[in-house]
Write a structure and sequence with these properties.
The chain is an alpha+beta fold. It has two helices and two strands, in the order E-H-E-H. The protein has helices at 20-28, 54-68; strands at 7-13, 35-41.
């Protein structure tokens, strides 16, 4: 790999507010710094209306809040 190659990391998430910060920290603490992370929350909008899925939606909102504070 060339020293200036950019690495793209794609992370699909669902109900991951506890583990995602650990994952992101591991990536961010690597010695190689030329990377771009894309996080995709895999949640249908309809889940907000389904009682059994509400906790997952709230957890995913925590993920969005966390990501909004990251660069």
């Amino acid at each position: 790999m060339k020293l200036n190659s950019k690495i793209f990391v794609s992370i699909p998430v669902l109900d991951e507010s506890e583990m995602l910060p650990l994952c992101l920290n591991c990536i961010e603490n690597q010695s190689y710094k030329n990377f771009h992370i894309v996080v995709c929350i895999n949640q249908p909008d309809e889940w907000w209306e389904i009682h059994e899925k509400k906790n997952i939606c709230l957890n995913n909102k925590k993920v969005l809040d966390l990501l909004s504070k990251k660069k």
